[in-house]
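Q: Got one fold?
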Amino acid sequence: MGEYCTSGGIRRIVCKIQTKVRYRLLFLTSMPVFITMLALVMITIYWATHYTWQDTLNDVAERLKTAENQFQNRQNMQVENLYMIGESYLFRQELLHSSGEKELNIWLQDHEFPSLQKHQHIFDCLRWQSVNRTEAAFLTHPTARVFYQVLESSELQDWCESAVSQAIVPIHQSGSQETRALVSRALYPVYAEDGTLQGYLDSILLLNNNQQIVDDIRDQVYPEIGSYSTKTGAVTIFLNDLRISTNILIDDYNPESRAVGTRVSPIVRQTVLEDGDFYLDRAYVHNTWYASGYKPLRDLNDSIIGMLYVGHQIWPLLEAYLINLGEIALMIISVLLLSAYIVHFGTRDLFHPIEKISSVVQAIQQGQDKRIGDLALVPEHELANLAKQFDQMLDLLAFRNQQIKQATAELETKVSERTASLHDKTIQLEHHIKLLNQTRDKLIVSEKLAALGQLTAGIAHEINNPVAVILGNVELIQMELGDRTQDIEEELVVIFEQIKRIRNITQSLLQYSRSGADKELFIRQDINSIVVESITLVKTGSKRKDVTFYTEYTATEFIECSRNQLLQVLINLLVNAVQSMAERGTITVRTENWYENSELKGSIIHIQDEGCGIKEEDLSKLFDPFYTTKPEGTGLGLSVSQGLLHRIGGEMRVSSASEKGTCFSLHLHTNAQFS
């Protein structure tokens, strides 16, 4: 901690806060103010970025609607002018006396209508179309119509040659030109007195390079009310994705350098021109970011042919937002500095006694015998009482230390004496334990060897040989009697069955003594038949003790296993069950299907006896090799059985209650899982 506190920068400040009451108190008093101010800043930022930006987009949407209304007003004025011309006396007279369409169009180009002077720049070209030359699409609409249309250069030249040059828009940074024209076209039907359609007055307002119309609409949408008006607002007309009329400047210092001939961004083109949706979001327009709104312009066939744009620069809004954040940050810093000043100078009298107490504590840590003494405070002061109690504690501590030193010396003497005595006893105990272990190991080895030798030799010489002699003599008797064996045929059958039974028993016992020697193949077998056979082999010993077997076979799953090895395991468990009971008792043997999480895993064999049970402390050692609680046992049965089950992935589980009986459960997989 000392090296940490002497390092510079933030670590030193953190160390002072952790170790100095003055700085900790300053930190605790300033932190709530700082957190409150920080929360205020975060709320302000959230409000500005969410609601203020949303209000900005709503404002753009309203201004876009206003611009659209201004365009509609101009189109309505375009129709009104055609109406005034078509219903005027001069036009009617000229229509009545003109020799043809060409003469009437010349008259329209040369003639001025005084009543239309106030509506100048409403259309650029005007012509008369008779009914037989009118486009078929217009004949189905007998009323006046106004719509947007794209005219090729040749079509525009048919209207008026002077408009062709005005329609040319150089495409920025490509060297090519756009010669098509986006126009607002209005048609007014003219009827004779008898109601017959004579033709149409047809006019167009050219929108290419029409800076006056975008400036007029810009002045209506963004009126001059400060810097956040016409200086930052803009209106643009697009032919497809190309700007053909705009008041966005390429050079801010050159009012004539308009961004005509530049294209819109890909995301706007996708949203408006291809998807046909409105676009309300920020957009990078030429060289800066704008809060932008785009609306598709459609022709008479409802096809998108261009866009109307309204937007204003984001920087003035962002500038005001940053200024507000700076003012809030300055206010927070000022409040924090003022709070720190008040806390620092208002608590000096409080910290002086604490610092004196701290210096005494540090001196005590260094081994000096110092006391706090008088702090020059009123007797009732909490720090004065603390200092007094602390001095008393130091005096008591010094007294206790002296007593501890004296007791330590006495204790060391006693410990030395007891240690010497304990060392002698330990040497004697280790010697006795060593002798005991040697004796026990010898007895265990002798018992194991004797049991194994007796088991194998007894089976080989005491059972198999007499059985072979009996079988041979019975067969000899059968041969000697010949046809007369019919009188004792039933008895001979019983003898052969019993000899076969004895051989099965001896074969099972031999397999029991030779764990792992079985070489037969593992095949799918019915465990119920194996259980029946094992009970048959064990019943010979159980009859002597009046042991009855209760069986319940519900398992239907065939198990992949070695029949003889499973017999070996079952016989061992059944024999143990018989031996654990008194003269009378019941052994319950059940089979069932093994399910886990509703999935069929295999089969289970339960062997439940009513014997003496197994003590809880013996359960953990039950499967240890050569561990047995029977004086005549070898301790190999359960360990060998468990090993045989493990070889095929099976499991042996045991539950037991002392003096109530034991239950062994064999869990066998359908398919052997060899280990």
